Amino acid sequence: MSILASETQKVVENAVVEEGLVSPEELKSLRQLAKNKSRSLLSLLVAENLVTNEQLTKMIAHATKLPYVNLSEAKIDPKILSLLPQDVAERYMAVPLGEMKNRLVVAMLDADNVQAVDFLSNKIGRPLKVYSASEEGIRRIFKQYGSSINQDVASVLDTHIADQKAADQAQETSDGKKIQSISHDSPISKALSAILEYAANNGASDIHVEALEKMLRIRARIDGVLREVMQLPKSIEAPLISRIKILSNLKIDEHRIPQDGQFTVRVGEKAIDLRIAISPVIWGEQVVIRLLDKSGTTLKLEDMGYHGRALRTIRGGLEQSNGMILTSGPTGSGKSTSLYALLQEIISDEINIVTLEDPVEYKMSGINQIQVNSDVGLTFASGLRSILRQDPNVVMVGEIRDGETAGLAVQAALTGHLVFSTLHTNSAAGILPRLLDMGIEPFLIASTVKTVIGQRLVRRLVSGGESYQSNSTETQSIKDAIGHLLPKSKEEAKRVANDLGYDNLPLSTDSAYTLYKGKISSEAPNGLKGRMGLYEVFEIDEDIQELILKRSTSSEIQHAAQKQGMVSMREDGYLKALAGLTTLAEVNRVAAAEIGDVLEEDVVVPDGITPGSMETPQAAESTQSEKPTVDVKAVENAARDKKSVEADQEKIQSEISKVATVEGTV
Description:
Number of helices: 27
Helix content: 40-55%
Structural class: alpha/beta
Oligomer: single chain
Radius of gyration: 31 Å
Strand order of the largest sheet: 12-11-13-14-10-15-18
Largest sheet: 7 strands, mixed
Strand content: 15-25%
Shape: globular
């Protein structure tokens, strides 16, 4: 905030009182407090949340007779942004708004500084029309420079292509000069920086650099959805991928095998860790860059989307002194973040927590974190052996990838340690058969695994949107998915809400339900921004232990878990949709309905509510009116298919016998 003249500051102070933001008495006491703290009164008003920066900027603009513009909801055309280069805009805290009578219209933080305005005008060689704007508004426009990535990258690549043609004509390009062409100040380096900044500013989790037959395609995964960012000429592929390899300390001349690496970049005020995976494809090499942005990530279970039964089950598992707590889900579903949140729950000076990760995604104080380095022999298995000699109370293994690591994790849980880890499975119930597949004995799984978690990520609704009533299809979908969980009457509503962790739940007998749409803006054109989790959590009780010993399938374990009272990911998603946190379409996108869903009589409901009382009238009518029917033709076809399969099996067995006979003869 620039220093104001005493007369101007007095006008602003009077405006604060006239607007009713503070009373004259409060202003007097605040003036004395500011004097005691040796700071300006206006900055104190903002710090005490009595005045927003936007309000204060507007008052100062009026006091200094300057035009004011509010940029909090502004969307600037990329062509207008290109009139003022981003580096110049950030240096002078100024953004272009348009053109007026041959003058460039800009919004500046320090608009009343005549010297700064003249210097900027001379810098870009154009006269200016200046408006006053807040720092938050100007920084918000800085993020929109990313949307003009095509122009930014194209401009620097034009330079590169021109240089390349000139070098080809002169025929003087040597290996040393090629390496020099991808130095830090090269066009390729600037293009890569523009791509990384675009991804970071738009909250992307991954960048895909894909080599196609005639071009190079750049895609970014934003809020879990891949979208194409731009297309580059095929000639850019080799220098761009080489630049990435150099930054990742990988072999630039190796194109036949996959390579993994990592490096860190600074975007604005935050450092972002990048995890690089390069693989050969038929048209060249594909690069996938995972962005690990630790800023703005919450590690509180409630903020991540855990509610009700799932939250109680997890915290019950954390009270155990030994055993395993395992999370599952596809790549990028937030498994590691869940593990960090669990560690955050139990971190204490009284216990020794040791983690083994690849890579270390979040650096946490009070925890001993080990980075896997397979190049020197530090793998999950070898690292876990070392950890067990370091007197740990809690061990976190970033991922169980093979039978050896799984066996060591089980042994750690058997010897009095609490072990956290992740597996790649489709559901929480799939964890247990996966461990069997890795060669772990059923009795060891039954005695060590305490709690399992399945999860997916869905996009959040932007607050401030409108509500609407569900149509018949949506209503039926809600009844089918969570009708057995919703309260039957208003008397039961509070009890069910406390059990499930969602307030103001509708009744299962309602003819329509209130759903929500997100607020549409330039930053969220579909009303969705940011992500949260859908979870299913259950503990291993005696019934599930028996199923494990019998080597039961994941569907049988899932059925038993829901009988125990587990809320599935799909059910959790529908509850979140009713709470106005996401949409039904988002839930259906990541958690489709499964065949053989749990039966109503197997569902655990809150005390005082009988399963029969939660049956909807429509369900009761359909049960009475429908009678079991048999499709004779379908039965005959099934029998014929069975005979055909048996005949094929006999042929295969016969061929195997012939081969065995020939081998025996030889």
